Amino acid sequence: MTASETTETATREEPDRPVVELDNVEIVYDRHFLAVQGISMAVDEGDIVALLGPNGAGKSTVLKMISGIGRTERGEVTRGSVVYDGEDVTNDGANEMVDRGVTHILEGRRVFEDLTVEENLRCGLYRGGRRVRFDEDDYRIAFEYFPQLEEILDLKAGYASGGQQQMLVVARALIHRPRLLLLDEPSLGLAPKLVRDIFETLVEINREENITMMIADQNAKRTLETADYGYVMENGQVELHDPADVLVDREEIKEFYLGTSGDSSQYTDIRHYKIRKRWT
Amino acid sequence: MVSAAESATLFQIAVEGVGLGALYALVAMGFALIYKVTGVLNFAQGQIALVGAYLIVLLGTGEAIDWLQVSAPVAVAAAVVVGIVLGILLERVVFRPFIGEPVLSVIIVTLALGGIFSGFVNFLFGQNFKGYPDALVLDWSVGLPLGASIPGSYAIAVLLSLVIVAALMLFFRYTVTGSILRAAASDEQAAMVLGVSIERTIAVAWALSITITTVGGMLLAMSSGGASVSIEDTGIIILAAVVFGGLDSIPGAFVGAIVVGLLRELGSYYFEGGTAIVAPVVDVQLNFGPGFGNILPLILLLVVIVVKPYGLFGTERIERL
Q1: Which of A20, A51, A172, B153 could make a disulfide contact with A124, Cβ separation 3.0–4.6 Å?
Q2: Which residue ranges make up each domain of chain B?
């Protein structure tokens, strides 16, 4: 698939201006390693957009270049553009993107281990290196969706359970009141029930707080059920993209991600297939 | 039996040990602060103390550049300001390009900085002892029970280090900025995506650390009436203190420094001639010089690393299985 074709097919015909739009973006690490080649995406206001694909497909890279944190890992958008809310934000730093209302929840439940749960939440009160507001009210949004956290405020975050840590990182991001929330593998390593809870809460947050989300996750079935639109990436390119309900029914997705028998939803179970070959 | 006179001597030596320890504590806390916030072992710490000590020579006596001379109190205030400015400047010029790079690179950079600082001091002032202005040579001392007394500069150091250790502990525990500094230390990237400015945390940490360290260097010089190049050695001595206290713990650095100060003074006094402590236990005539006080803290360093690698108060990494 050539770059120009991708651009054409990926532009969605929607009346609203997308919150974030990637146009033929190429991302290079360390000046030599081509991680993402010519992808285009558009995320509409209020949508949940799923990014699917195997390890190393470039899902995290895309999220990192939108939030700006990829710059600290020597990542660079070398071609194309990232537009946020009509403004060109290609290669902008993390601080600037946070100020614009983009909050990124990194892969692997990155709580501040030595800090208590309450101190972790406190860190959500910062913008551009400065504290914005600080009163009890700010935590309300966190406790509304994750009431459990209120009971473990004084616990060192490093000692919290995996589920509690995942709640904490989402709650910490919510205190930011972001406009666009980027989530990288929110279900990784969690028990199925916790995964269900987390995704249900994310949908609630999306509807009630009107926070647009991009979710990159290996749990394709659950993510697609949650999402409005989905992109399937492989080898740094977008292979498929469609509204989530259409995508769920596509044969390739059924076979390789959801499993034809219907009970296996983990990509890892079927990794040995050569997906690309079947699609082209 | 220990006679009254002997215990009075012991008390006096201990008091001086605590005083010296308090001086080290200032330098050690500066070191621990940087490690706690940025994960960098600052091998220029002794040289920063050295710069602090010679700043007073530069500003207070007009040595090297005579038109710079100001009165002693102004010189002290100016030296503190220079410390803050130096911290911010170092972040801008030296440390910013290393954000996101392995910490080891920055550690090597501090080695180079140390060389530059001490070279610069040497270039301006040479190797000789430089006396402080009279107003800063403290000839008073505070009387204590049992006939002991503590020299003025030690007394100031004890008070100042107590204030600073308390202030820093409260700062890290209860202020939002303190939480942010700890958060950035624990996970730089996760802090950045929350809008924490890593540049600013690094600048705050270095400015605080260098200010405390330069004051420590100044007081070290005051305790001997003027600046000398030997202040540089403090950088190695406080390593023992911070490792003992746990590298990333500020109260740990304080306690460690007091212990090291005590070890130095007691070691220097009781091992001189090598009889006082050793003779009653083993019937051997050992001839230690007073320099044994310098060895004891480093023996402590080795023992602590083997027995308790995280030190007394250091954070043990939380590993979940």
Answers
A1: A172
A2: 9-228
Give contacts of A111 with chain B, Cβ < 8 Å.
187, 190
Whether B197 and chain A come into contact, CB under 8 Å, resolves to: yes
Strand partners, A216: A51, A184
From the number of C-beta atoms within 10 Å of its C-beta (0-12, 13-18, 19+), residue B14 rates as: middle
Q: Which of B179, B183, B192 sits opposite A94 (nearest CB)?
A: B192
CB A149 within 8 A of CB A143: yes
**ipTM, 2 decimals?**
0.78
Query: Tokens 């997705």 label which residue?
Result: A253
CA A216/CA A210 separation, integer angstroms: 19
Enter the DSSP assignment of A230: E
pLDDT of residue A275: 47
How are beta strands A75-84 and A20-29 bridged, if at all?
Answer: antiparallel
Residue A118: which residues within 8 A CB-CB, separation 6 or more? A153, A154
What are the pLDDT digits (tens) for A248-259? 888 777 766 665
* DSSP notation for A70-90: GGGGTEEEEEEEEEETTEE-T
Over its C-alpha atoms, chain A yields an Rg (Å, rounded) of 18
Give the residue from A18, A39, A59 showing the smallest Cα distance to A183: A59
Amino acid at the residue A199: F
pLDDT confidence band for A64 (50 / 70 / 90)? very high
The residue of chain A with its CA nearest to that of B100 is: A72
In the predicted structure, residue B88 carries a pLDDT above the cut 70 = yes
The answer to whether the beta carbons of residues B34 and B27 sit under 8 Å apart is no
Written as one string, the DSSP assignment of A192-252 is HHHHHHHHHHHHHHHHHH--EEEEE-SBHHHHHHH-SEEEEEETTEEEEEEEHHHHHH-HH
- A113 three-class SS: coil
Torsion A63-A66-A68-A73 (CA) sign: positive
Residue B67 has a CB neighbour count (10 Å cut-off) of 5
Per-residue pLDDT at A151? 92
Q: Which of A263, A268, A211, A254 is nearest to A44 (CA)?
A: A211
The pair of three-digit structure tokens given for residue B101, joined into one six-digit string: 């790079």
SS3 of residue A9 by DSSP = helix
Q: Which residue on chain B is closest to A66 by alpha carbon?
A: B193
The rounded distance, in Å, linking the Cα atoms of A35 and B312 is 45
Q: Which domain holds residue A157?
A: 3-279
Counted domains in chain A = 1
Tokens of B15: 């008091």
Give the pLDDT band of residue A260 (cuts 50, 70, 90): very low
User: Which of A76, A109, A112, A182 is the best mutation test for B, with the most CBs of B within 10 A?
Assistant: A112
Please count the CA atoms within 13 angstroms of the CA of A169 that sit on its side-chain side. 30
B306 touches A: beta carbon within 8 Å:
no
CATH number for the domain harbouring residue A67: 3.40.50.300
Tokens of A82: 């990232």
Phi, psi angle pair for A34, to nearest 5° = -85, 110
